[in-house]
Amino acid sequence: MTVLAQTLPGAGTGRRPARQMVRAYVALTKPRIIELLLVTTVPVMILARRGLPSWWLIVATLVGGTFAAGSANTINCFVDRDIDKVMRRTSRRPLARALVRPAEALRFGIALGVVATLVLGFTVNWPSALLADAAILFYVFVYTLGLKRRTPSNIVIGGAAGCFPVLIGWSAVTGGVGWPAVVLFAVIFAWTPPHFWALAMKFRDDYAAAGVPMLPVVADAKTVTRKIVGYSYLMVAVSFVLVPVGHAGLLYLVAAVVLGAWFLVEAHRLSAHTRAGEDPKPMRLFHLSITYLTLLFAAIAVGQFVK
Known about the structure:
This protein is mainly alpha-helical.
């Protein structure tokens, strides 16, 4: 706590209470994003074990994964602090509000990455630790530094960073990467563009003001929604592959069909409203996409106990 206190402006003068300080550092890690990443980890571990892994292994994997995701997100906040100040959606992040010094945020992010590597390496296995490191490096260097401000394909390629938790979960149980994990990697990879483009449609003006070429900034709404529909079909199609490849079971198949149909209906609704010149309400698809992924992975887990 003393170390953290020294990283904030006004620390030691009584102007920044410890609770506010802790909240600022936690906010740097983007906890809501971490929650979604962890939702995809445990079901994959259950699928790999064909049952419930040891609680110790689950906890160790989740703790290490949390530190790894927190590391990537914190360094992302460090790199993007200039545009976060411009965008209304991100203007209250700690670095945008100068609640944390940039150098201290960077050190904090790197420290989280080191802790993640050690936790996963010594308590889970080193393949999982290396996969976590790869996810951090991909998110920071490929997406944040390499693609985000340069190409509208940023989230398509860079979104792969968010797919690594399924590989880490599988590796934690088996020590390697199997085809079922690869299939789920592909599901999340195809899920990411509809999920994020729906959000970017809502905050198009934010991204435009920040000079970030998200697809809704550089393309018309009809093109964006057409691509959303295309990736949605790809996502649903790939989700079915887990049945023969991962022996996911009947419950998962039913869930994949029902949830997939629901997602496709909403994607087509978004496209239809856009073509008609009506308010497409893209946040409906954004929130649905989170529900879709959560329930699909829940079906993976429950399906291993319901035969």
